[in-house]
């Protein structure tokens, strides 16, 4: 059934945010105000509360919860979103209009500056609504800096919308109100252990003993957990947010490396206490359930290693959504169903993350970005395995050229708000299926590099001449119905290290690929930073997967597939061609290696 709300003008209210379900709506003096908003002065900065000592603050926190039974809360339907857009805090709006975040102003600011800034923020939200975004998760806390003027534990971000503070206009209230007017939800995102570096800020300044891995904080220490709960409560007290998201992907480690599992119970208790804060805030506001989400690694084993007990968090009804995510890149090979299985029988939703970046082999992650066809492929793999929607992260990179002439210098400046239109397409599963999909199966962290979690995630095939067997395989998944006669599929990969006379034997899911369906192109120049990972000379292998004209059935299947290759050095092939065959000639071992990299599959949809 088509999604009819996509046909509506973006300014038409779509009443879905959680606090509207129990309270009637009233039109008042030119604006839409929901009954759960308990302050009429929505654009004024909240007054700072009386000073409290650290002891006072911790005394006000909920006591540790020992229960392991499912939490009973007000019954409110947790309707799934299609698009949960994670705004990377200031960098999202700083990319669009003038601020000192990037150093060099990018436009003139008319007076009064506060009116200009408010207009720009509201227009950005309007464009998100037009793109069918359901919720914005706004990063308002990073390393004890925040966008909350009334906070007693953080310092105010130095990058603020021009003129608004001087005029007493709270940028968060502007964003929240506009989201609610456009019938989107506003989620307050908190980076749990950002380690971008720099001097310690806010409450962390007075506690060098909290230090973890440089500029992070150790959650094994009770004071760290308490002060983070204090900030969560400050947000809930000051703003009509629709929920909280804990972004554990900034910077993954909450404990000393290797100590996550033994300390998992501490984060679980911390999660219970957060749920208590949210439920208390909902009761004060007369709302339904306020949402609670977590952003975690896209691999269950990595979550367990780091101390994220998702099974308990979900089964106890503590969290309402989970965002499986790589640190910086889109992982098309993610096993979404592992998270869907954890949430089965609960109201918890799963929103895998998509990123503009493809792989980490510096510095190319700043030069080659995901295309719409790449996004569609990733979204198809997430939806096909049970995801409720998707969550773009660092999406401002698609138009960062507006503000920065470095790092992402290949970006097109015109892609805002055009890039938001891609999200509208991804929100419509039928539209994803109607359009071409370009799957990328790159090594996200090519050896010896590792993810910030400590895992490699390198799926490339590496062959060493010194080995007895010169063959290897790798997994790649595609949520496609290959019985559909309207689909046409082409596969390609790059083999680095082959000599011109070497050859490869290729199998897919145990089936030999016929030679007449393979094209091989030698690239003596290799690949530069603007084309992808920097590679030396390579051979490009292209495999046409549409074999029915010769009476063959191609082997691709819905779900996980296996690419297997065997490297046949030239002298081995020559010897094998001799009468009676011959063993592999003796060569200098270890002097030659081959890698199979950058596997891609393009699915063309015939109309």
Describe the protein's architecture and organization:
A hairpin with a 2-residue loop joins strand 1 (25-28) and strand 2. This protein is an alpha/beta fold. The longest helix is centred in the middle third of the chain and has 22 residues, at 264-285. The chain is built from 13 helices and 25 strands. Helix 3 packs parallel to helix 4, helix 3 (113-130) packs parallel to helix 11 (415-426) and helix 5 (222-238) packs parallel to helix 6. It has helices at residues 54-59, 90-96, 113-130, 171-181, 222-238, 264-285, 300-306, 310-315, 336-343, 372-384, 415-426, 429-434, 570-577, and strands at 25-28, 31-34, 84-87, 135-142, 145-146, 155-156, 185-191, 211-212, 216-217, 243-247, 291-296, 321-324, 349-350, 353-354, 391-392, 437-441, 461-464, 471-478, 487-496, 503-508, 511-512, 518-523, 538-544, 559-568, 593-605. It is globular, with a radius of gyration of 26 Å. Helices cover 23% and strands 21% of the residues. The strands form 6 sheets. Strands 3, 4, 5, 6, 7, 10, 11, 12 and 13 form a 9-stranded mixed sheet that branches. Strands 16, 17, 19, 22, 23 and 25 form a 6-stranded antiparallel sheet that branches.
């Amino acid at each position: 059934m088509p999604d009819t709300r996509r046909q509506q003008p973006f300014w038409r209210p779509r009443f879905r945010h959680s606090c509207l379900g129990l309270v009637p709506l009233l039109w008042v003096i030119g604006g839409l105000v929901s009954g759960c908003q308990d302050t009429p002065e929505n654009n004024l900065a909240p007054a700072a509360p009386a000073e409290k000592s650290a002891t006072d603050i911790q005394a006000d926190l909920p006591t540790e919860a020992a229960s392991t039974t499912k939490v009973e809360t007000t019954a409110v339907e947790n309707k799934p979103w299609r698009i949960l857009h994670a705004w990377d805090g200031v960098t999202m709006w700083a990319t669009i209009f003038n601020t000192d975040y990037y150093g060099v102003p990018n436009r003139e600011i008319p007076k009064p500056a506060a009116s200009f800034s408010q207009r720009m923020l509201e227009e950005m939200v309007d464009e998100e609504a037009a793109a069918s975004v359901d919720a914005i998760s706004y990063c308002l806390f990073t390393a004890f800096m925040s966008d909350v003027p009334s906070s007693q534990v953080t310092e105010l971000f130095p990058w603020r919308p021009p003129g608004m503070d001087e005029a007493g206009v709270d940028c968060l209230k502007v964003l929240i109100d506009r989201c609610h007017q456009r019938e989107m939800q506003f989620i307050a995102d908190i980076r749990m252990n950002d380690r971008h570096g720099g001097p310690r800020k806010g409450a962390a300044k007075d506690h060098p003993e909290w230090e973890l891995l440089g500029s992070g904080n150790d959650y094994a220490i009770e004071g760290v957990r308490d002060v983070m709960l204090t900030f969560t409560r400050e947000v809930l007290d000051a703003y009509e947010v629709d929920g909280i998201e804990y972004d554990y992907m900034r910077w993954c480690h909450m404990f000393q490396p290797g100590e996550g599992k033994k300390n998992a119970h501490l984060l679980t208790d911390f999660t219970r206490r957060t749920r208590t804060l949210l439920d208390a805030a909902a009761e004060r506001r007369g709302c339904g359930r306020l949402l609670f989400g977590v952003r975690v690694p896209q691999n269950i084993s990595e979550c367990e290693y780091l101390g994220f007990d998702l099974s308990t968090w979900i089964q106890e009804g503590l969290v309402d959504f989970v965002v499986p995510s790589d640190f910086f890149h889109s992982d098309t090979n993610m096993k979404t169903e592992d998270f869907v299985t954890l949430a089965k029988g609960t109201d918890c939703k799963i929103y895998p993350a998509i990123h503009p970046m493809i792989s980490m082999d510096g510095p190319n992650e700043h030069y080659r970005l995901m295309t719409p066809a790449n996004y569609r492929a990733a979204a198809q793999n997430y939806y096909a395995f049970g995801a409720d929607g998707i969550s773009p992260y660092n999406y401002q990179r698609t138009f960062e050229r507006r503000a920065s002439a470095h790092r992402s210098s290949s970006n097109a400046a015109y892609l805002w708000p055009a890039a938001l239109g891609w999200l509208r397409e991804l929100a419509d599963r039928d539209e994803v299926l109607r359009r071409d999909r370009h799957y990328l199966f790159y090594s996200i962290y090519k050896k010896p590099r590792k993810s910030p979690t400590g895992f490699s995630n390198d799926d490339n095939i590496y062959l060493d001449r010194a080995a007895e067997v010169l063959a290897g395989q790798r997994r790649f998944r595609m949520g496609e119905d290959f019985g559909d006669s309207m689909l046409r599929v082409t596969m390609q990969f790059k083999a680095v290290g082959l000599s011109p006379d070497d050859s490869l034997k290729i199998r897919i899911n145990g089936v030999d690929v016929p030679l007449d369906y393979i094209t091989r192109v030698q690239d003596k120049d290799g690949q530069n930073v603007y084309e992808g990972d920097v590679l030396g000379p390579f051979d490009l292998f292209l495999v046409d997967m549409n074999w029915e004209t010769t009476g063959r059935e191609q082997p691709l299947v819905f779900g996980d597939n296996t690419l297997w290759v065997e490297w046949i050095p030239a002298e081995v092939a020559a010897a094998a061609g001799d009468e009676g065959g011959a063993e592999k000639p003796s060569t200098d071992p270890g002097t030659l290696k081959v890698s199979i990299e950058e596997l891609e599959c393009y699915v063309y949809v015939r109309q």
